Amino acid sequence: MLALDNVTVGYGRASVLHRVSLRVNPGEIIALVGANGAGKSTTLRAISGVLKPTTGSILLDGKSIGSLSPERIAALGIAHVPEGRRVFPAFTVRENLEIAGLALGRPAQEIEEDVKGVMKLFPRLEERQGQYGWSLSGGEQQMLVIGRGLVARPKLLMLDEPSLGLAPNLVDQLFDVIEEIRERGTTILLVEQNANMALAVADRAYVLELGTITLQGSAEDLSNNDLVRDSYLGMGTEELI
Length: 241
Ligand SMILES: Nc1ncnc2c1ncn2[C@@H]1O[C@H](COP(=O)(O)OP(=O)(O)OP(=O)(O)O)[C@@H](O)[C@H]1O
Ligand SMILES: [Mg+2]
Hints:
Number of helices: 11
CATH superfamily of the largest domain: P-loop containing nucleotide triphosphate hydrolases
Bound molecules: adenosine-5'-triphosphate, magnesium ion
Distance between the termini: 33 Å
Structural class: alpha/beta
Strand content: 25-35%
CATH class of the largest domain: Alpha Beta
Number of strands: 10
Shape: globular
CATH topology of the largest domain: Rossmann fold
CATH architecture of the largest domain: 3-Layer(aba) Sandwich
């Protein structure tokens, strides 16, 4: 579905990713793990078209998307839920969800169906559908931004650190939801500091270090890899920072 080949990208003249190649097949959950500053968010920004590669190619279903605008790439079916929780504070939960569909020019009835689907996935959002974005808790805001990504009805959903700052019980729920989203047919590219959880749900994973993919393989193999265990597993995020 998605293929990056030798992608180099950065900010201004400084390259952050160096010849990154990765594949995401339909129906997979792919985890991208790595320490702070490794270039995980930059990779997602390159895929969603916010940053343009200086070398290499990005293909979606075999077609090059590397030079398309972010709007065009979103319309082709890639939803990017960025780091941090950016809900629209002055809109209600329901409006926040509807906007995601309206922005893509989708018919009202389809949007309504998808909003219902998101509320089924996150019952808390259904309870709070009339509440303003600014008044939500951090965990509720995180559910809302993921829900907004889903209302775009993407083929590929990219989640950047969805578990960051969530209480442990919410993290468990979140990963259950991620699995459920995949079961409904959406392919997922998951960026996580919580490598334990990410490798537990992912099919395959890539390890990014200083802008270079240094390891890749099945999630199971990587969980058993000594380098991965020493560097990314079995320690709190505070030790990574
Ligand atoms: N807007 C920007 N301008 C310049 N440099 C940037 C910008 N955003 C990120 N960088 C740099 O690019 C590198 C990779 O950053 P990126 O945000 O992709 O890392 P990350 O793996 O997502 O880290 P984290 O786990 O902390 O979110 C870092 O050195 C960072 O300082
Ligand atoms: Mg990041």
